[in-house]
UniProtKB/TrEMBL annotation:
PANTHER family: NADP-DEPENDENT 3-HYDROXY ACID DEHYDROGENASE YDFG, VERY-LONG-CHAIN 3-OXOOACYL-COA REDUCTASE. This is SDR family oxidoreductase. Gene3D superfamilies: NAD(P)-binding Rossmann-like Domain. Keywords: Oxidoreductase. It comes from the Bacteria. It comes from Schaedlerella arabinosiphila. GO terms for molecular function: oxidoreductase activity.
Length: 257
């Protein structure tokens, strides 16, 4: 049991992970933007699992987001045992047609914010020689994806970052895990307008299933988890098939039908 800080808790994978961690008796700090949803989630988790739940409602694309979170947890005097870098979104389409402002915000959230918060929390974990960080990548971390160029590039950063930190901390009390789910039935595809793609029509997994498969492996401190045989095969073939072919296949899978 410990204190778990999870970003992006109000829906999808973050919500499912929050429920799992709370059900295991952990105290939770929820971080997302929607304050009404956060208040409801706090009440529900406290009543259901009798754990302490606090929340921070903030837009994590803002430059001071990591500072604000650190100030808040210092005020609460809550040492973080487990950090889940989950919050994320997608801006999908051909690069010439996508919204650059959204893409820059995606870079802010997936790269800058995660780097800043992880550095701050790791430095405290390092003093105690104890802690665990779970980073949420994607099967897209392995596959440069035409029609999802910036998203897959940010997820490649998360993979490289997580694997490198795993190497730095592997013989210490700190665990670093990278979870790379494939298409998952959350709010993510609706928000990015990719619900009608072949990928999201035929290859989706429920978030509860992702959590059920991955949670025991996370707790063991595995470096990399790819949930589900389909996603494992996708990653395996993406490594051996020439980029020209994966490019074409990705375009087909990511086209709205
Ligand atoms: N679904 C998939 O197919 C899939 C596949 C592979 C990887 N992933 C990754 O899984 C993670 C979770 O996504 P999901 O599928 O669960 O999507 P989701 O249902 O849309 O949930 C995203 C969560 O992130 C929060 N969030 C988004 N932007 C934020 C911001 N600027 N500041 C603070 N919070 C923010 C949202 O809360 P608020 O709106 O309340 O802020 C929400 O709680 C992401 O990193 C995503 O890239 C998803």
């Amino acid at each position: 049991m410990g204190n778990v800080l999870i970003t992006g808790t109000t829906s999808g994978l973050g919500k499912a992970f929050t429920e799992k961690f709370a059900s295991m008796g952990n105290n939770i700090i929820l971080v997302s933007r929607d304050i009404q949803k956060l208040k409801k989630q706090q009440l529900y988790l406290q009543n259901q699992y009798h754990v302490t739940v606090n929340f921070i409602a903030y837009d994590l694309t803002k430059e001071d987001a990591a500072d604000l979170i650190m100030e808040q947890i210092e005020t609460w005097n809550t040492p973080i045992d487990f950090l889940v870098n989950n919050a994320g979104f997608n801006e999908c389409g051909l690069f010439s047609q996508t919204d650059l402002d959204k893409e820059i915000k995606m870079i802010d959230l997936h790269i800058r914010f995660i780097t800043q918060l992880t550095k701050r929390i790791l430095s405290i974990m390092k003093k105690n020689n104890y802690g665990h960080i779970l980073n949420i990548g994607s099967t897209g971390s392995f596959i440069p994806s035409p029609s999802d160029a910036v998203y897959s590039a940010t997820k490649a950063y998360i993979m490289s970052f997580s694997n490198a930190l795993y190497g730095e901390y592997r013989n210490t009390g700190i665990k670093i895990t990278l979870l790379c789910p494939g298409a998952t039935e959350t709010e993510f595809a609706r928000k990015a307008n990719i619900e009608q793609t072949l990928l999201f029509k035929y290859a989706v997994m429920k978030p509860d299933k992702v959590v059920k498969i991955s949670y025991p492996k996370i707790i063991k401190g595995k470096r990399l988890i790819i949930p589900g045989i389909y996603n494992k095969l996708l990653v395996f073939f993406s490594k051996i098939i020439p980029i020209e072919i994966t490019n074409k296949l990705t375009m087909i899978m990511m086209k709205n039908y």
